[in-house]
Amino acid sequence: MVMRKRDRILALLNTSRNSDCRIAISPLEGEFCNLKRKVDSYARISNAEILRLKGLAEIDNCEALIHRYQGNPFWLKRVATLIQELGIGANDLLIDDTILLPEDLKDVLQQQYDRTCEIEKQVMSLLATENQPVNVATLLQNRQISSSDLLNALQSLSRRCLIEKQESLYTLPPVLKQYIKGL
User: Does an H or E element contain 71, and which?
Assistant: First the structure.
């Protein structure tokens, strides 16, 4: 019974736009880690399958493309469709870290961006200008946002997977960074 529920949740995660967000389905210690490993392995398989189904099996290192789009199946499907329709060499895209933003992907990103408050937009704009992950002190040097507002915005954006936190450093995912730079 529990396995069937878990498998259904994993299947939903696998098709969700936000499959890269963390969830916990059990209060048992260690259960989250096991679930995360299982989701990651399902995601790698399905993402490679997405690229194969779109005729992009010739990519030398499909993991690089998957990583660039954070393993998000929705994003990968849109980008793979654009690559396929335009006849772009996918291996050529991997050379210079090109981030493609098809119109339907931009529409989804715009919806997510529109749901953020002004302070969150300011934080994302600040992060978009940074080439490396930054700490809170660096963000506070801007002096446009109070420390309390900044911390609340970072927490909110992190919970919605709109920013990434690596130890005590924050950054925007490459796709969002590219989108926000284009605004």
Answer: none
What number is the average pLDDT over the span 108-124?
94
Those residues whose C-beta lies under 8 Å from the C-beta of residue 120, and which sit 6 or more positions away, are: 153, 156, 157, 162
* pTM flag (> 0.70): no
Quick: pLDDT tens for 131-167: 999 999 999 987 788 999 999 999 999 988 899 998 8
Bin 94: left if φ > 0, else alpha if -120 < ψ < 50, else beta: alpha
125: exposed, middle or buried (Cβ count in 10 Å: 0-12, 13-18, 19+): middle
> Number of helices and strands (H, E) in the chain?
10, 2
3-state secondary structure of 97: coil
Beta strands of the chain (E only): which ranges?
A: 164-166, 169-171
